[in-house]
Structure formats: C-alpha cells, structure tokens
Structures
1.
Amino acid sequence: MIFSHARPIKGSKVLYQIEKRLYICEFKVIGKADSVKEKLEEAKAQILEKRYGLRLSDKEVITFAIIINENKDETHEAVREVAAIAEIGN
C-alpha cells in the first residue's frame, strides 16, 4: 500500500511522504534578472545548513532544490516553469 501526501513545512519547503521515503523540497522563485545557478546554489546551501535531511525517522530522506522561473509583464499572466532541480546529498 502506498501512502502519499504533501504538506508545507516552515518557509518555502514541502514534505512528501511516499511509502518508506520522505521527500523534502526547497523552492526558490526567480524572475528575469535572477540567476538560476545562484538561486540553486543558495537553495542547496540552505538545505545543507539547516540539515533538512536529518530526521528521527525510519524513512529514507531525499532532499531536492527546485528553482521556479516566473516571468510576467503588463500584457500577460505570469508564466511559471521549473528552471532547475537538483537532488542534494545529506
């Protein structure tokens, strides 16, 4: 049986639980002037600094940094796309 749910945790993180794994995703949003690489490194550093991967649980913890590119102007609705995703080792 697969048990799956998602719930937000403090800040811009989401926790997913699927069977014996916990997936923790750190999200960063960028605009046209921002650097994908810089935001990805910032998210990675935050995951490692805050030690998101360390949980007192019998589940395997997998952490991801996800960068969302959000572009908009006066004539169009915001367009959002995943600009980068990286699995972070613990």
Note: The radius of gyration is 15 Å.
2.
Amino acid sequence: MLVGRKYRLALTPERRDQAEEYGSVCRTVWNIGLERRREYRRRGKLIGYVQQARELAESKADHPWLAAPSHVLRVTGRGGLGASRSAKRQPA
C-alpha cells in the first residue's frame, strides 16, 4: 500500500537564500547540459553523463559562480535521465 506524506520545510532566511542560489545554479547547469546534448545530437554524436560531469568539474575551477556543492551539480546533470526512467515505472 502506498501512503502519501506531506512535509513542510522551514528554512532560516540564510538557508533560504542559499537554496535559491543553488537552485539558480542548478537550473543554469541543467540548461547548459541540455544544450550540449542537443549540439552533439545535431552532429550525430552522443555525450554521456561521465563526460558532462568531467566538463562540469573542469568548469568549476574557471567559473566562481558555480558555487553549489559538486554533488548537487552532479545530481542535477543526472536528474533528467534518472528521474524520467523511474517516473515511467511508477503508476500515475
């Protein structure tokens, strides 16, 4: 039996600002990664998660605005792939 639960997260103002900043960075990383995958597909090639994660790690050294923790950014890069597969297995 599936049971639904709702939780409300109460953040301090500092943590709320940090969460918004991380969310903004993650959105940007997702959009850049999506565009990179589209570029590769247009050329008839594929770019995998490992290669994109490597590029992201290299980019963090050059771009200080990528201030979110690495594990948050890696999960963001993987999110679209893993979430869509698991969502298909779940009944609606």
Note: The two ends are 14 Å apart (CA to CA).
3.
Amino acid sequence: MELKDKTVLITGSTDGVGRVVAQRLGSAGARVLVHGRDASRGKAVIAEIEAAGGTAEFFAADLASLAEVRRLAEFVRGRTSRLDILINNAGVGTAGDKRQTSADGHELRFAVNYLAGFLLTSELLPLLKASARARVVNVASAGQQAIDFDDVMLSRGYSGVRAYCQSKLAQILFTIDLAEHLKGTGITVNALHPASYMNTTMVRQAGVTPWSSVETGAEAILNLATSSALEGRSGLYFDGLRESRADAQAYDAEARRKLRSLSLDLVGLASTKAKEEQS
C-alpha cells in the first residue's frame, strides 16, 4: 500500500510493538494518530516520527472507560475526514489474578482488550468507509479461550490468563463478524497473533522471559495493514505472517451473533443498531 497521505490510528502506540508500528508507518509517509495514556511518552513518539520526516498527532485516552473511547473517536473525527488504517493494539496482559473492573463496571481485560476496540471501530466506520480501501487490524493472540456466555465477566473462576485469553478470542469473533457485515464496502478486517512473548512491558509484567522482538511482531502487523497480498482479503486470522486458524468458537455464527448483541448492549449502541436495521 502507498502510505503517503494515508491516515492511520494505532491504539496503544506509545510503547512496545505499537510504538514500532507507529514509527514505521510514519517514516513511510503516513499521517499517524498516536494513542496512549501517558502524554510524555506520546510526545516522545511524535518527536521520533517527525525526526524521521513523518507527521503525527497524539491523543491521550484510557480505554478502560467507554466515555474515553468515545472522546478518542471524537478527536479522530475532528482531525480527519477519512481513516485508511485502524490498528486496535492497546491491551492489558495476563499478570495478576485479582479480578478488576473498568470504569463502566465490566471485567477489565474484556473491556480494554475487546470492548474498547469494538466501540472505537463502530464509531469510526464512517471515516473508514470514506477511504477507498481501508483496513482494520485487530491485534489478538494465540492465547485464546472460548467465551462463556453465561459468565462473560468471569465472576466465577477468575484468573488473569483466562480473562486475557477470552478477550483475545472475542477480538477474533468480532473480526470475522465485522468482515461479513462490511462486504462490498472496501474495508477489510483481519486479526493476528503478532509474535510469541515479545519484549514488551506486558510480557515482563507477567514474569515471562521474552522469546521474540517487538520488531518481529511489528512486521506481522504491518503485513496486515499494508501488504498488497491482503488486498480484498478479510475475516482472516494470522499467526505472525502465516494465515492460520483460531479457536473453533470463532467460526461459530451463533457465538458471533451473541457476542455482537451483547457488545452493542454493553456500549449502548443496541437501540441505534435496531433503528438502522429497521430503516
């Protein structure tokens, strides 16, 4: 993909693999909208991109709050009339077995890793549709666990690993579901496991010795975001650079329908969606 004059939003791009992806896209000519929670780190990423001749802006938002997700979407709408690439990368790792909740009362990993990206993508669909060939990339994981629709918020048998794996599989269900709904729009939606145990803050906090570099993970993300080989291909799951298969639940149409219905309700879009379908 020719990146000059393209606009890209990457959540969680002030650290780790997201930061590398932001730097690469910026140096290649894209206008990068950088997101994170820390303004000082955001300014540092902007400086790095501008030093390489790129253009970037930063917006701080805590994706554990749906109101903050909406503010991020509003910021993007105020800065551009089109969005060419959206990379939902921000996330909470596996460290810790004490159940935590988001500002809206949802299990924290489900809220940040999945629900925030679901809402942000929904809010930005008009900008994505305004681009001739937009791409959405959901940074998921090979760590996946089937969603328990009787206890999505994991009030029983909680663990950080279980919560993380469920949230990452939710991202993949969302990817396949959204790809089906966007057929014919020019928008492609794909998900991936970028690399195993990259050298990131998330991995180190989990007490795991890194196996791979953030540069390796960045290459996999950039492949889905920019490769001409992915033109028109949507609803796929990749393990690194290789197309792969996710957990079986991702290919269950009823599970995807349940997740979509639940998600619309949780983010307050259920009534809006019903009106759109009736019109």
Note: Residues 108-129 form the longest helix (22 residues).
4.
Amino acid sequence: MSKIITIGVTDLSFHRVTASLISHVLTDMGFEAKRIYSPHQENFQKLKSGEVDILSSAWLPSSHGIYKADVEEVAPLLELGLHYSPYALWGVPDYVPEEAVSQVDDLLKLDVIERMNKDIQGINPGAGITRFSIEMMEQYHLSDAGYQFHIGTEEDCFTAYEHAVANNEWLVVPLWKPQFLHHKFTIREIIEPKALLGIVDRAVLLLRQDRAEKFTSDQLAQLDELRFSNEIIAELDYKVCREGQALDVVTRNWLDK
C-alpha cells in the first residue's frame, strides 16, 4: 500500500503548476500525492497544524519568510530544491515609452498621470506582491495623484492587463516572475528605488521535519535536486491558463521529455 503525502498548494496558477510537477515526482517514487489548495497564509497555517506534510512552493526570504517563521515556532522545516527564482515587480507594457516611464516616480509626472490608467489591479491580500504594492502606494504618494490599488483575484489582475493591452492603454501591473503573461507579452519592469518589492527569492519545497521519516534519504536527495526555472513555469502556466490544456497532462509531458 502506498504512503500518502499531502501537499499544501498556494491556490494560484503557477503554484498549481509547480505542485503538479512535484506530485508526479512523488507518484513516481511510489507515494499517493494528495493536493490541498488554499490562499497564501492559510496554506502555511495548514503546514503549521500538520494538515499538510509539505508545502509547494515557499518564496524565501522576502514573500513568505514571515509565514515560515510562524510555522517554525511549532514545527521545524526542511527546505528542498530550487523550483525557480521568483521576484515581485511592477511593470508596464513595452509600448509605454521608457523615457516616459522608467521608474515608479515617473508615474507622478503630469503627462503620465493624464495618459495612465490609474486603476492598479492586484491579487489577494495575503500575497507578497499585494503587501509590497500597498506599501508602495503609500511611500510614493500615488493615491494623492489619483491612483488606486485594488485587491482581487489573480484572474482580475491578468484580464485587466490583457484588456488594457488589447486597447493599447497605458497601465501598471503588479506582477511577479514566473507568471504566464510573461510568456506572451513583453512587460517592462519599472525601477523601484526604495526596494519595497523585496529581493529575488528562492522557491522551495518546505517539509515538516517530523514528516521526513516518510522518505528515504535517496528520496529526500531527489526532491532536493529538483530544478525548474521562471521560464519553464511561465510556459507551462500559459499552456494551462490560456491554451486550456489539462494541468497534470502538461506537467507530465514536460517531465517525460
């Protein structure tokens, strides 16, 4: 009878892609991989309570470091693998001239204010990019210039960008890598001098140390050797989210190749 490994998955598309890859690897090891999908903070709470054995993927140290520290108050964790190197960004479509908007302060220029869509559509409140963006709105006094940051779903964010590009509108998108929009669009990152967006993180698998006994040392080493990339995750994410291909089929095909 196969052992069950329960994976906590942050319920965003690129996290689902990575967790699918991990699930296939665990299945190939002989485990039954069960996935539980939750928002950011709830995902870590389930790791803390022991409802899940492992979490895919934690962004450390910037985005999810505070959540990891909270879990480790009761349960020491092992970091395994390097799934990709994520980071948060604010970007604009490549047709917005760089001489007009190259850094966040440029959003306050009068000619840019007149041209820019001032609705900045974010995602859920627990995401690092959301926390960072709210701080940026305050630190750069963007609200005073008429900008508004909106919390919403990831699809709210992505479709707002696609709709704006279809209409050749100027807008700012609070985003990150890896994300499927980068596979189709050239999104130019704008400079953020105050370093409020964090640093380049490590996306890793977090395993409760008290569940490590479920694995052999060779299996732990195999999980620790897993390496994907921002570009690979973005491409697979695009195949699922915009081409409508089945998640587990897309990831299985990639692993088999």
Note: The chain has two domains: 4-86+201-256, 87-189.
